[in-house]
Amino acid sequence: MMDQEHFKLAAIQAAPVMFDRDASTEKACRLIREAGAMGATIAGFGEAWLGGYPFFAFAEMRPLTWQAMAEYLAHAVEIPSPTTDQLCEAAKIAGIDVVIGVVERDTVTAGTVYCTLLFIGREGRILGRHRKIKPTFHERSVWGEGDAVGLTTYRRPYGRISGLNCWEHNTMLPGYVLAAQGTQIHVAAWPGREPAAAPASPNPLWPRQLLLSRAFASQAACHVIAAGGVRLHSDTPDRYRELSIFEHTGDSTIIDPRGEVIAGPAQGETILIAEGSREVVLAAKAMSDIGGHYSRPDLLRLIVDRRPQTRMAERGTAPDEETQAG
Q: Which DSSP string corresponds to 219-263?
């Protein structure tokens, strides 16, 4: 029987098989089973793990870049699909909840991909998905903008879970939506690039992976699985090696609801594990529940539009019959 007062949090830190959806899916399923064997209750992967982070968008634009972009699109993941069926089956076999970053292909146009977090329950079913609302800088040349459909928490036997991608933790409002819904365990998915010291010159894309993850844990009074990705130059196919101008080194951490690091930072391919506690969550929320007693809705309120983005409306032969796409 599951202990609903204590649970184990896992950050799965590993390199995907770039430009190979099937091989990456097999690896993800193996890692999910390994996390389950380690006693994990919930496991989180890094940003865009299945499909990989679009490193090629940061290099100088050239014909090879367009080739990489086309191949990246071809190996993206549709939801649902045989790929997501495999992930669901792995979660069911392992008996754990899974939050994994996927490069999601738009099923309407088949020409746009999103940076998506996919939530899978231990029952072997998809709980929901969240598309990154605003891709950052060069990412905008690859990923489409998401919506608020997936800005939600999911009730699980041990607590409410949520997730955001990378610099969504820097934009503040998406995080407040989740805090106001009482998130207790949050997956902060990052590409995994957190150097030990600040660069010599100012860099607006300095990841702040640890800083923002700790801040979110403290603000939302929740455990945070800050899952970082791994992609070294050696993990990059030879045909695209010249487009690889930086590496992702992981640096995953697990953080308690006070903002303190309780595991990590991790190096190399590994599964980072730490124990979470419902009591610790409730104690932190009793002090500061920013979506509850520590809010002032008479002064400040946030409006969320959860309607899916629709780009085209069609009228059929029946009177006033409409179908929507996009």
A: HHTSEEEEEEPEE-GGGS-GGGGGG--S-EEB--EEE-TTS-EEE
d(CA 226, CA 10): 10
C-alpha distances in Å from residue 101, one per residue of 152, 166, 261: 16, 11, 22
pLDDT per residue as tens digits for the range 213-244: 999 999 999 999 999 999 999 999 999 999 99
- C-alpha 46/C-alpha 188 separation (Å) is 8
Question: Of the residues 29, 104, 115, 132, which is catalytic?
Answer: 132
166 as an active site residue: the answer is yes
Q: What is the mean pLDDT of residues 179-194?
A: 94
Joined together, the tokens standing for residue 169 give: 């933790």
Active site residue 47: yes
Mark whether 27 is an active-site residue. no
State mean pLDDT over 34-44. Answer: 98
Active-site annotation holder among 47, 104, 139, 194: 47
Q: What is the pTM of this model?
A: 0.93
Round to whole Å and give the CA distance between 81 and 278: 35
Catalytic-role residue among 104, 166, 168, 285: 166
Span 97-118, pLDDT tens digits: 999 999 999 999 999 999 999 9
